[in-house]
Design a protein that fits this description.
Helix content: 25-40%
Number of helices: 8
Structural class: alpha+beta
Number of strands: 9
Shape: elongated
Strand content: 5-15%
Radius of gyration: 22 Å
Largest sheet: 4 strands, mixed
Strand order of the largest sheet: 6-7-9-8
Length: 242
Amino acid sequence: MSIASQIKQRVDNLPYGYLFSYSEFLDISLDKQEAIIKALNRLVDQSIIKKLAKGKYYKPEQTPFGELPPSQYEVVKDILGTKSKPLGYLTGLSIYNTLGLTSQISYTIQIGKNDIRPSLKRGKYLITFVKQKNPINKKNIPLLQILDSLKNIAKIPDTTLEGSCSRFQTILKHLKSKEISLICSLSLKYPPSTRALLGALLESLDTTFDNTPLKETLNPITQYKLIGIKDILSNYKNWNLI
């Protein structure tokens, strides 16, 4: 079977939206890299696959509503590492929709990493990086995504502060006690305003919440401005929110 036929057969078996590069076909013929790239580009010309960026391809899914692009995770999965050893995680504009905080979807993909790098383009996507001071691991990532979103609550598009707080209360209500303890610990490397809002939300859900450890990290004379919060959280004064 020719190299082109082998590649076509393998592409036919790939799931829709899966992002791949020519290197995944090198087992067919390690010394025929140029032939592999040419075969892939012919599939692009035939509209069987699409090129997202240099060396990056995917098989588009056709629906009654048009062609579906690859998921944001697929676009950046090589930057995120693996599930067992994550190097980064989707955050910001990339996660607000997933968390149910907004219905908007952005072509800007934000990634939290311990070591940030310059932004880059892949097709129509702009990929930017946000510094994360906490360790990034499988257990931390969902909580870091919540904290990142709390930190930027006033910047979440197409929503209201009341709607965002209500959604955060729902999210936090489903955390287990160990996760609440961990998210409070992780919040120590976030701005004080984020810790104050986290504490106020947790306290609003459970009046028996031990707020002392979190409160002791805040300056008792510093106030944190969040316009409209006093109409949403009755305990806003407890956390110096104004």
